[in-house]
Design a protein that fits this description.
This protein has 23 helices and 18 strands. With about 500 residues, it is α/β, with parallel strands linked by helices.
């Protein structure tokens, strides 16, 4: 007897439909054969499924069982095929009779006692089930909130094989899981940190506000202990809240790699990723024999913070250059090509020299010029050109550290950022560029109109600082954002002066 069910497998961050066909025919000796380019994790599932069937009170087929996973040329390596294969074996052996097998897709991993365990990628599977017109998706209880985010498809949570059988046969009524956006925001959408915790550093906070307003990449240089990491870790608190579309895009990535916290249905905070400087190229941009997203994709719609930037392997940093320009990363392997989103804000921090105290007013630097040059040369000019804003973060005086009065807080900075982004939203309506930091050269010429004094100032800065054409464009983009913060349609000289000051580290550290 032949039984067919529909399930899904994750390929990158997308779900692909897989048809499970189970055929049971008489044979002298019991034998289970699994075909369809199944990887080791899937081949081992037959032993789990047989014990799960027996321990759930069902009869294990004693004939020849052939299980086919179609399409046969697509590699399958997840454990989410356990539950659909078990249901297929029950249907093919006449232990399960249901007309709902065609209406519902099934995913889930089985334990030996028949309980259903959590899997990864359920959100993408629910999206694909809706697109294919299926009535619903049967998922593990632990994944039900995550899948219930998708409207237009019933999400049926089951905790065991017996519950799945009971639902399909109509003997057990299971209500579809419901998702509450407001409840999720209250539980997972609040940030535990605030910029009011940062004493002093008002100029650095201004640079952070500008960077967030236009989504400009940011580099902070300063001695150890000046607050660079403290500033970076609070950056997401001044960015606009994630829209439902952005939240769904980001959650898909975390769901596909199994990074969602227990009970969390959606990512409602901007991602903040801070990889260690020993990270590999595959860990940073993604890769592997079956490509998986890297840190730059996990930071999609959020912040990627690279602390101690010169300590990263130079070749590892260089692979970020193209994703930073295109806001996506494409990885090609023999099994196919995958594109992962990488629309992020890069924030980096570094010391001015190996000992960290070059230019510090209270500590003496003992580094030789050769040591400093070797240290700074670890960051290439092309990568530095792609970072819009460079700022110095000086030590905070004692009087500011001991001051009981709080400085600028996150809410005040966020209001300024949202004001500037609303201006940009109206400006780029109908355009691919959504923010000043992603303007194309054509849009740059159209929207970055300079006052006569500002035009002369930019010309002088280009000649004196020896900036590249890309740096010229970065200054204009940052100047446009500063003007937006002032609600100015024209980039005046004082807007451009501030933007140029954010590029002076090109001269101070790399060209002296």
């Amino acid at each position: 007897m032949l039984a067919k069910l529909l399930t899904y497998s994750i390929f990158g961050i997308d779900a692909r439909a897989v048809e499970v066909e189970v055929d049971i025919s008489p044979a002298s000796l019991p034998k289970t054969i699994l075909v369809g380019l199944a990887e080791a994790a899937v081949k081992e599932s037959t032993h789990r499924i047989e014990r799960a069937l027996a321990n759930s009170g069902y009869s294990r087929p004693v004939d020849r069982v052939v299980i086919n996973l179609s399409p046969a040329d697509f590699p399958k390596e997840a454990s989410s095929f356990d539950l659909p294969i078990a249901l297929g074996m029950l249907a093919a052996s006449a232990q399960l009779q249901s007309e709902q097998l065609e209406d519902y897709c099934v995913v889930g991993e089985l334990a030996l006692d028949g309980s259903v365990r959590k899997i990864r990628g359920t959100l993408s599977m629910a999206l694909q089930a809706r697109e294919s017109g299926k009535r619903g998706l049967i998922v593990p209880v632990e994944n039900s909130q995550e899948a219930a985010v998708v409207e237009g498809v019933e999400i049926i949570p089951v905790s065991s094989l017996a519950e799945a059988v009971g639902f399909l046969t109509g003997q057990l009524q299971i209500d579809p899981m419901q998702f509450s956006w407001d409840h999720a925001v209250d539980e997972f959408g609040q940030y535990p940190v605030d910029y009011s915790d940062v004493k002093g550093q008002e100029l650095a906070k201004r640079a952070v506000t500008v960077a967030c307003a236009g989504r400009h990449h940011l580099l902070m240089i300063g001695s150890p202990g000046t607050g660079k990491t403290l500033l970076a870790r609070r950056l997401a608190t001044v960015m606009p809240s994630l829209s439902p579309e952005e939240s769904l895009e980001t959650t898909r990535i975390y769901s596909a790699v199994g990074r969602l916290d227990d009970g969390q249905a959606l990512l409602l905070q901007r991602p903040f990723r801070s990889p260690h400087h020993t990270i590999s190229q595959a860990g940073l941009v993604g890769g592997g024999s079956t490509p998986t997203p890297g840190e730059i994709s996990l930071a999609h719609h959020g912040v990627l913070f690279l602390d101690e930037l010169p300590e990263f392997n130079r070749n590892t940093l260089e692979v970020m250059r193209q994703p930073l320009e295109e806001n996506r990363v494409t990885i090609s392997r023999a099994i196919g090509s995958m594109t992962f989103p990488a629309n992020l804000m890069l924030v980096a921090a570094m010391n001015p020299c190996p000992c960290g105290y070059r230019g510090d007013p209270k500590r003496q630097c003992n580094c030789t010029p050769i040591q400093i040059e070797r240290y700074l040369s670890r960051i290439s000019g092309p990568l530095l050109d792609r970072i819009d804003i460079h700022i110095e973060v000086p030590p905070v005086p004692f009087r500011e550290l001991s001051d009981s009065q709080s400085g600028t807080d996150s809410q005040e900075m966020k209001e300024a950022v949202e004001h500037a982004r609303e201006i940009q939203r109206r400006r780029f309506q109908g355009s691919e560029a959504m923010l000043n930091g992603t303007m194309s050269p054509r849009e740059l010429r159209k929207h970055c109109k300079l006052a006569p004094a500002a035009e002369e100032l930019l010309k002088m800065a280009m000649e004196e600082m020896g900036l590249s054409a890309r740096a010229h464009d970065k200054i204009l983009r940052v100047g446009r954002t500063i003007a937006d913060l002032d609600s100015s349609s024209l980039i005046d000289a004082h807007h451009l002066t501030e933007a140029i000051n954010y590029r002076t580290l090109d001269r101070n550290y790399w060209t002296q």
